[in-house]
Design brief:
mainly alpha, Serine Threonine Protein Phosphatase 5, Tetratricopeptide repeat, 2 domains
Amino acid sequence: MQDPPRSASRSSLRTILFAAMAVGILISLAFPFGVPPVSKWTKGRAERYGRAGDTFVRMFYLARIAGFGEEESRQFLDQAHLHYLLSVEAAPEDPQTLTSLALVFSALDRREDAVTTLYALLRQDLPKSERQGLIATLRVMASTEPSPEDVENAASFLRKSPAGLLVLARAYEHLGRTDAAEQVWRAARAQALGLAVPAAAMVAVCGLMLLAGLIGLALFIMGRVREARAGAAHRPAAPPPATWRAREAVEALILWLFVAQACRLALGAVLPAERTTGALALLVPGLAAGIAGIAWVWLASPRGTRLGWRLSRGWRWLVAGISAAGLFALPILGLYQVIQNLYLRYSLAQQVGLGTFPEEHPLVPVITGAPLWPTKVVLIVAACAIIPALEETLFRGILYGALRKDWPFAPAALASGLVFAVAHLSALPLLPYLLLGVLFAYLYERYGSLLAPWAAHAAFNGFNLAILLTLYH
C-alpha cells in the first residue's frame, strides 16, 4: 500500500531536480562563470573574419581570371567588405583589420570611408616604417590625381593585402604605367590561383549535392507515377510509436542543455584561454550532453527500445536522406546568407553595433586553428556523423516521437523544428534551422527510420564544411 505515495514522492523529487537544472541553465547563461575574458577570443575571431575577407577578395581575382567583368565580380568585394566589418567589430583597435577594411573601401570606390578608416588607424601608435607607408597610402586614396612618388611609397604597404593589390594596380593604371600595373595583376592572379583547387573542390561538392538531389527527386516522382498507374496509394512508413511520454522528452532536453553548459563552463575554467576553441572544448560538451539526454530516455523506456533507429532497408533511407539534403541544402544556405547580409546592412545603415552576431560556425575556430590534418579529419567525422546521430536521436527520435503521439505531423514537426533551431542558440538564422528541422522530421515520418534524417543532416553538415574549408583556406 506504500507504493503510490512512494511513487508520488519520487515524481516530485524528479520534478524538483529538473526544475533546478533549468534554473541553473538560465543562471549560467546570464552569468557565464568560467568563460574567458572577451579580449581573449575576439582577436582570434577578428583574424578568422579577416581571413574570410581575404578569401573573398581572391575570389574576385579568380572571377576576373575566369572572364567575368569587374561589375559582375563586385559581389565578392561586397562580401569581403562585410567580413572585414565583422573583423573590425571583433577587434576595433587592431591595425590589420582596419587596414583591410580601408583597402576594400577603396577597392569599392568608397573613398571617404577609406580615408576615414585610415585616419582612425593613424591615431594609433604604429612603427615608423608602417606609418610612412600608411601616410603614402592615405595620400593615394584621398587624391584624384596621386603623384608617382606617393604611389611608389605606398607600393610596399599595399602589396601586403589582397585588396591592396587592386588599389595599387588601379593607381599604376591611372599613372599610365601599364607594365607596373600588369606586374601587380600577375601577383593578384597568383594569389587567386592558390585558391583555385579548394574552390574547384567546393564547386564539385555543390554540383554533386545538387545532382544527388535531382536524381532523388526524379526517383520520387517516378515512384509516385508507378503507384498511380497501378492504382495503389502510397503509405509512408510511420515512425515507431514512442514508449516514453512528453515529460521524458522535456527532461532529456533539460539534461542535454545542463550537461552541455556545465562542460563548457568547466572547460572554460580549467583550460587556457587560447584552447577554449580547440577540439576538446568543442566536442566534449556536445558528446557528453547528447549521450546524457538519450541515456535518460532510453533507461526510462522498455527494454529493447531503439529510439527510432530502424536499420532494415537502411541503404534506401541513406540514399533518400542524401538526396533530400542535395535538393534543399543550397536554398537553405542561400536563405541563411540573405538573412545574414540583410542584418549586417541594416545594422550599418542604422549605425548600431553588430554585437555578438552568430555568423561563425562553431567548427571554424578549430578548422583554422588545427595545425594537423588528422585533427581536422577527426572533427569532420564528428561533425558529419557522430553529432548528427546524437541530435537526430534527441530532436527527432525522442522529441518529435513524443509529440507525434498526440499531435498531427505539421504541428509536431514545427514544434520540434523550433526547439531544434532555438537549441542552436542562434536567434537570427532561426528560419533556416526551423526549415531544416521540419525537413528532418518529414524524412523520419516518411521512412520510419532515423537513418534518413541522419543521412540528410550529415550530408548538410559536410556540404557546409566544404564551403567553410574553402572560405577559411
